[in-house]
Design brief:
This protein is mainly alpha-helical. It starts with 5 loop residues before the first helix and ends in a 13-residue tail after the last helix. It is built from four helices and no strands. α1 packs antiparallel against α2 and α3 packs across α4.
Length: about 140
């Protein structure tokens, strides 16, 4: 591995995923926007939500690796991963539902939900990744 601090390695890994997530969002949501006749701003919010969920899945992976990294059973790790991602996504979903219920509208009610989910997921992902910043500290010594 390159002689960099573990957190800098982690940030470079995360930064490298952005083009892939953005391209996936474009490939998936541009045709869907045409089919469902979404406004351009709603399509952008869908792409932003897709990117934020990509980072949320990555943060969930880091969290599970950090907390349950020594567990050898892949089935148990997968169950912990699913639970972690659900718990990480819950704040964005709850806040989006509350904003929709109150009547806050950004482009549309769906746009409000998507934008709030994207913003909250990004915040939760950043906090989780920062909390797991030294997950690569002993990666070279890991014999899994």
């Amino acid at each position: 591995m390159i002689p960099e601090p573990p957190f800098k390695k982690l940030l470079n890994l995360i930064r490298g995923e952005l083009p892939r997530l953005f391209l996936e969002g474009l490939i998936i949501y541009i045709p869907i926007a045409f089919i469902l006749e979404l406004s351009p701003i709603e399509a952008v919010f869908c792409i932003a939500a897709r990117i934020s969920f990509g980072y949320l899945f990555m943060a969930g992976n880091f969290l599970v690796d950090r907390v349950y990294g020594t567990v050898q059973s892949k089935g148990i790790i997968f169950i912990f991963y699913v639970i972690a991602v659900i718990l990480l996504a819950l704040p964005g979903i709850i806040i989006g539902a509350i904003l929709m219920g109150v009547g806050v509208s950004v482009a549309s009610k769906d746009g409000t939900m998507l934008l709030s989910i994207a913003l909250i997921n990004a915040l939760v992902s950043m906090l989780t990744i920062y909390g797991c910043r030294d997950v690569l500290q002993y990666a070279e010594l890991n014999n899994r």
